[in-house]
């Protein structure tokens, strides 16, 4: 691997990790919105997508209109990614939180890196031993981080469990499909269209006039705006920029640092407890991220070139 390629991969890792800092850190903000104001989760999802898509579209319209052009042959791929990637991954994740609890929802979603590795193996690519170890450590660490599983989840219906499990499949699809598109377009091009598609979908679920009729105070709209910028626009831009430089599996493993950041943030800002098992889980996830970045050079390059 040349020095420039190595530098690009290092930058990619930092960008994905920066995305997890924003995602995990703003999870505390989102939880405070739900806890303090009783805003439905789907409303918060819709507003953060609408705000992010609107800001990004306005910026591109003013500064880089060329980024709004896409090939006709790629429009269906953007539509599918917006519906079955961006909209579906958030919908299934929040549904799992409501029905199975936060811990299980996180654990199920972060099975995704394992599925990405299995998909690449099915396509004939042999994962390096460090990558296999990284996936196993990331899964074990996430399980320890979210060990406080709500016992009522055992009484959830089979449908609830299926939806929760599907979140990992959808997240894996989201990463792999995004990888193909960011290899062809700038991250902001992919984001503006997929955010827009997902926002329209959620507006059909919760029409805008219902949100207006709720008469949310100005202080709450400020928090909605913060979620749109710092929980959506900025971290997804960082993640896509990192994904453009990294194999999909490596980006997926590094993204498992999100629950580490979220739990540490809740500990610092909300005073939630942090047990020894969770601390050990955090260490395992960090070790997993380091191992994921130590795959064989030829594997890494193949992941970058394949797009």
What is this structure, in a nutshell?
This protein has one domain (3-306). It has 14 helices and no strands.
Order of helices and strands: HHHHHHHHHHHHHH
Number of domains: 1
Provide a count of the helices. 14
Question: How far is the N terminus from the C terminus?
Answer: 17 Å
The tally of strands reads: 0
Percent strand: under 5%
Secondary-structure content class: mainly alpha
Helical content band: over 70%
Structure description:
This protein is an all-alpha fold. It has one domain (3-306). 80% of the residues lie in helices and 0% in strands. It has 14 helices and no strands. α2 (41-63) crosses α10 (218-243), α5 packs across α7 (158-182) and α6 packs antiparallel against α13. The longest helix is centred in the first third of the chain and has 35 residues, at 3-37. The protein is globular, with a radius of gyration of 19 Å. The protein starts with a helix and ends with a helix. Residues 296-307 have low confidence and may be disordered.
Write the layout of secondary structure elements.
Elements: H1 3-37, H2 41-63, H3 72-100, H4 102-109, H5 112-122, H6 129-145, H7 158-182, H8 187-205, H9 208-213, H10 218-243, H11 248-255, H12 257-269, H13 276-292, H14 297-306
Helix pairs in contact: 1-10, 1-11, 1-12, 2-8, 2-10, 3-4, 3-7, 3-8, 4-7, 5-7, 5-11, 6-13, 11-13
Q: Which properties best describe this structure?
A:
307 residues, globular, disordered C terminus
